């Protein structure tokens, strides 16, 4: 048990104490404003799909669809917005597990190839819809990784999902993995719209989007990269991004090698 009493021996020490209390109080009020901001963002994000769902269901109930085809279009919008809501709620649950430090990590060794294959399989419809070609380039003697397999699959899924969503039709996506000191470096490159350099420092922030309308329209929650960063941080790895507007982006992260 440590002694919490603070003994002041001089005016200088009092000055230092006053400064650090001032600093702490600033940090607390910053934290408080971050929390408020987060709640405001969440409410806004939940409200927009709900408003749209409500609007289209009302229109259907009032018989406003002029024929079967139009009614089907309304229902498709309702379906899309419901999916987005459900993704948003799942992402929020995951984020709150990280915040409350209740996220459980199942650490073990696993081959990277199998989770890349699984992520690609889960996204095959989106890949086919845009007629994209995904090429993987994994060194043949790639060591096993060490981490939570499901969460690393989620990292790859989120990055690949973005690469697909921000690519133009018939584009190409490259996934590579190489040993990197005691780590493994995984990179996902697309040749899509890219990110302006002024936005780069913020893209890992919760709900930050370069183009809000486009992200929402394509089902984005604005939380994908925040979750990626959180998972990789908790694995002791690093995330990185290089991007040129109009040319494309490379997102990368490092992961421990098994036994490394
Ligand atoms: P979202 O659900 O909006 O995609 P993310 O957290 O995954 O949220 O990404 C944050 C923002 O970063 C996106 O809205 C987009 O503006 C930008 N972004 C992410 N990945 C890419 C990419 N591969 N190419 C271009 N922009 C991207």
From TrEMBL:
It is a multi-pass membrane protein. It is found in: Cell membrane; Membrane raft. Its EC number is 2.7.13.3. The keyword GTP-binding does not apply. Signal peptide: none annotated. GO terms for cellular component: membrane raft; plasma membrane. Residues 41-259 form the Histidine kinase domain. GO terms for molecular function: ATP binding; phosphorelay sensor kinase activity. Keywords: ATP-binding, Cell membrane, Kinase, Membrane, Nucleotide-binding, Phosphoprotein, Transferase, Transmembrane, Transmembrane helix, Two-component regulatory system. It is an enzyme of class 2 (transferase). The keyword NAD does not apply. This is histidine kinase. The chain holds residues 211 to 470 of 470 of the full protein.
């Amino acid at each position: 048990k440590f002694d919490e009493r603070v003994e002041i021996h001089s005016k200088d020490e009092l000055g230092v104490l006053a400064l650090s209390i001032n600093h702490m109080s600033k940090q607390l009020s910053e934290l408080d404003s971050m929390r408020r901001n987060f709640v405001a963002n969440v409410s806004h994000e939940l409200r927009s799909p709900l408003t749209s769902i409500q609007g289209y269901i009302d229109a259907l109930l009032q018989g406003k669809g002029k024929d079967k085809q139009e009614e089907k279009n309304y229902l498709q919008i309702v379906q899309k917005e419901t999916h987005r809501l459900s993704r948003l709620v799942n992402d929020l649950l995951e984020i709150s597990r990280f915040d409350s430090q209740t996220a459980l990590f199942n650490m073990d060794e696993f081959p990277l190839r199998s989770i890349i294959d699984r992520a690609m399989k889960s996204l095959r419809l989106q890949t086919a819809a845009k007629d994209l070609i995904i090429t993987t380039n994994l060194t043949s003697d790639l060591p096993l990784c060490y981490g939570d397999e499901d969460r690393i699959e989620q990292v790859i899924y989120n990055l690949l999902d973005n690469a697909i969503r921000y690519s133009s039709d018939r584009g190409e996506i490259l996934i590579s993995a190489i040993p990197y000191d005691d780590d493994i470096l995984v990179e996902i490159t697309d040749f899509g719209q890219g990110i302006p350099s002024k936005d780069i420092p913020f893209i890992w922030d919760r709900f930050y989007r370069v183009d809000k309308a486009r992200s929402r329209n394509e089902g984005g929650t604005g939380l994908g990269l925040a979750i990626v960063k959180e998972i990789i941080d908790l694995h002791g790895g690093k995330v990185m991004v290089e991007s040129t507007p109009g040319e494309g982006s490379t997102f990368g992260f490092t992961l421990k090698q098994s036994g490394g």
